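User: what does the whole thing look like in 3D?
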Amino acid sequence: MKIWPIFKKEMRLYFTSPVAWVIMSVFLFITGYFFYSIFGYYARVSMQSAMNPMGGSLNVTDGVLRPLFSNFSVILLLMMPLVTMRLFAEERRSGTIELLLTYPVRDGAVLLGKFLAAFALYTLMIALTLLYPAIVWYFAPLEWGAILTGYAGLLLMGAAFIAVGVFASSLTENQIVAALVSFLILLMFWVVGWSADFAGPSLARVLQHLSLTEHNESFAKGVFETKDVIFYVNFTLVALFLALRSLEARRWKG
Amino acid sequence: MIEVQNLTKHYGPLTAIRDVSFSVAPGEIVGFLGPNGAGKSTTMRILSCFMPASGGTAKVAGYDVFRESMEVRRRIGYLPENVPLYTDLRVAPYLEFVAEIKGVPRGERKKRVADAMDRCRIADVQNRLIGKLSKGYRQRVGLAQAIVSDPAVLILDEPTIGLDPRQITEIRELIKSLAGEHTVILSTHILPEVSMVCSSVVIINKGVIVARGPIDSLVEQYFPTARVEVEIAAPSPAAVRDALRVIPGVVSVSDLPGSDGIGRFVVESSRGRDVRGEVFQLAARQRWDLRELRRMGMTLEEVFLHVVAGEQSEPEAASS
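Assistant: Here's the predicted 3D structure for the full assembly of 574 residues, as structure tokens:
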């Protein structure tokens, strides 16, 4: 499997073009602002509760980082389609896919190389946000275990987002269409949990289980649950499988 | 090296190529000719394993392009039409990527890349972004990626399109230098190019092969006579015509179009017989002024126009 050369090529493309830099900057800017306002709000609340003898106990992990992680999933929902839209759509538009797919490399290796490159960029993006817990840690003790669990959840959810994006990108030669399709799919899997409120009890459980962001909630709380891990892994695998089929379509179409 | 048998490809209701068969011997350079939309690129895409045929078989280097596609892909260098390249990569890293993915061993990679850049004369732009290069340079980068793994077979789709005359000559020289160790199939619709570079041709029109073989034998097959253009100033052109007609070996004498009464003729004789000496002697004997005497070369262009248009084209119209 020649995943490595594909991976390196994609990383080069991300970083020699402005794509990676712009996406990382924008992501850090938005999450930085969220962190600033959440942390500022928490500081005010904790000051008030310190003056109020009846005040309950406050905790920075719950008060700052949990809401921050929940906000991350919304930002990522909007941004990940932009990270992945290029992967196959651009190769199709410029025709480079014709060369790429006539090199002695399997479609699966091309797919995995691209997926892993997007995932590496995403990991870097997420890793840069470790700055926020580090700032909190400067002022107050932190439960690092819970935070690492939160990050594990983000990585798993990101993998699922990227897999959907790769699939959408394999469908079209237009990057905007690719971004919109992956955005639509991700949004559907996000809001599907909401309709659980109106559904019957058994259907509600299914709908809730399908929701992409629902599974991230327990990670954000610092709870590492096997069923959530399995959900994200399965989701990623299914999306990648569909992408592989869509790549191979040229072999039997027409 | 390349064996194609009854290859057929449909795009929906459209038939791009039908029952295409030909073969290419090792070390040969074969020109694949045809008007635009004749099915050249389709055939090349099938040979390069980009897409499967609807019917028939194709073998490259002894391997079936569909069932043993990986083996075929290891042995080919492919340059698609329009030279698709990653515009956001620099030349040398791009070629290193291609070398790596084509399985050039790590130790040899740098050398092979440098070698390919030398042969294609792109070493001076190796640190530039491909997107910033001129068309000629991009074309050469495309060619460099095809030869970087030193493949047995090269499949080049319109390798000289969009280049300036000097670059065209350079690319041609490069392709010619590849003959012998590489088997090359190149498509083009620029005919002089083929006569200069290729040893034999396959002519395809509307998805069907209309002619194939070595260039000389094709010319002979379609134009079995040798032609000489003659201009003689004489009191009576009709007398000249009659005199020319009786020279031994002459098959026919016809007026060159647009030469009413000036005395310009096309003398056709059986191939291999040169009548120029006799024409000169005749003019000298009759004291006619021989103003022009020229053998007309039968070129591939005439064959091409003949088989593609399906009609006898006048050689003088075609050779201009």
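In plain terms: Residues 3-43+59-249 of chain A form one domain. Chain A touches chain B through 25 residues (CB under 8 Å).
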